[in-house]
Amino acid sequence: MLWLNTSQKCAFFQKRLASCVLLALFGLPAAAQSVTITSPASSSTSISGVRITASTSGYISSDHLEIWDNNTKLGNVFASSVNNVIVLPNGSHNTTVNLVSSSSTVLATKSVSYTVAESCTDSSTVQCNFDHQGIDNTQNDCSPPQEDKWVANGCGAGIQGTGGIDPTSTDIVATTESGTLPDLGETTLNGQSLYLEETQGSGGYSNVIFKADTPTLATAEDSNWVMDEYVYLPNPSSYQAFEIDAQYVWDSIWTKFYTECAFNSNGNGTGYWAVYDGSAGWAFLNGQNGAPNLPCNRSQFALPWTGSGDSSSTGWHHIVWTFKRGTSPEGYAIFVSLTFDGTTTTLNYAPTTETGGSAGNNGDFSALVQLDGADNPNPPNDYPTVVAYINELNITHTP
Fold first, then answer.
1. What does pTM read for this prediction?
2. What does each C-alpha distance from 278 to 248, 258, 323, 333, 338 come to in angstroms?
3. Which residues have C-beta within 8 Å of that of residue 52, sequence separation ≥ 6?
4. 389 near 115, Cβ under 8 Å?
5. Which positions ≥6 away from 16 have C-beta within 8 Å?
6. For a surface tag, which of 229, 234, 268, 283 has the fewest beta carbons within 10 Å of its beta carbon?
7. What b-and-e string marks burial along 356-387, b requiring 16 or more CB atoms within 10 Å of the CB?
């Protein structure tokens, strides 16, 4: 038998302990890598603006996420999680989130199947699909009549701003499309959208109001209004501003819920949302003079979602304005909130006392879109044509 003194025993056991620790460390499996999708839920039904939320475990800084839908890649996210609104066409969808290494190896993956469908039904308080109203291209004049069809006010009152001139032409088209396409430039979300176009004149910028009245009048005084729509601007650089509006008449007073993204509101390329302030004109939401701060710029409209890996693609964006109609004094507009691609900003802003003027039938309300072409369209005319697609335009009105 080998006898060890105390110091020898300690050295012996220390070596054995170190060996055991090394064996234990090398024997441990690598950290588990996985992907978890928390939204949308499996077998659920979503509106076209689908919120994709997913997280990973075992992520390292050289990894990235790939987002796929129906076997088409939507983009990359260089982070351990994703929380984005992706606008997708109606129909069945299978969205996959992959955790990918720097060598393009898929380390973990997760998929979810769900349905995208409209959640709007016509009723006494809801008018769905304003963009599916009829079209009257013959009324491209200064004073088109009120009708439940889309018309273009191509001159006179349609021209706003210093230096504005009549457009060379306007066009309204019901764009139809079969099948489902990824959000990389498709022209409809539910099979039919509204295509609006104006060709600018020379010598200044042109703008055109396109308008459709509701086929069914409101039968009571309604104070609460929601304008919900998807827009696709193929070339945001062609715009000075993009305007989307609703208006409502009661007691012979129009309440004008007029809003615009003024891409160049201060002349140096900085943009803000603006709301109509009656006889005072537009009130820019730039954080000054009591107004809330709500920036708006071309880049918000230039990409289908913030994680897209394809900077050349454009896509649909979901815009929801919430308004209230005040009654003291009668008919003033309150701009309650704006939700842009799933992010809501509360405003509760009332810049004016009254937006009225006597016009229309009691209970009539309308949807409007104005295309404001970029300033100076003279040769070399980079942006002679200004185009917008509008889809799933719904207006809700309740007491």
1. 0.83
2. 14, 10, 15, 9, 20
3. 37, 39, 40, 67, 82, 83, 84, 85, 86, 95, 97
4. no
5. none
6. 268
7. beeebeebbbbbbbbbbbbeebeeeeebbbbb
Q: Give ∠ CA 381-387-202 in degrees, rounded to 5.
A: 30
Cα distance between residue 365 and residue 355, in whole Å:
14
Cα Rg of the chain, angstroms? 28
Query: Could you tell me where in the chain the CATH 2.60.40.10 domains are found?
Result: 34-116
Pick one of 2.60.40.10, 3.40.50.450, 3.40.50.300, 1.10.10.10 as the CATH number of 34-116. Answer: 2.60.40.10
List, for residues 29-45, the tens digit of each pLDDT value.
Answer: 456 899 999 999 999 99
pLDDT digits (tens, 9 = 90+) for 114-169: 999 988 999 999 999 999 999 998 866 666 677 899 998 866 655 665 667 778 88
Query: What CATH class is the domain 126-398?
Result: mainly beta
Contact present, 47 and 116 (Cβ < 8 Å): yes
Q: Where in the chain is the domain with CATH 2.60.120?
A: 126-398
- Phi first, then psi: what are they for 188, rounded to 5°? -145, 160
Q: What is the pLDDT of residues 252-280, one digit of tens each?
A: 888 999 999 999 766 666 799 999 987 78
Containing H/E element for 243? strand 239-250
pLDDT tens string 52-84: 999 999 999 999 999 998 888 888 899 999 988
Q: Which two tokens stand for residue 199?
A: 């060709």
Secondary structure of residue 172 in the 3-state scheme: strand
- Does residue 164 contact residue 206 with C-beta atoms inside 8 Å? yes
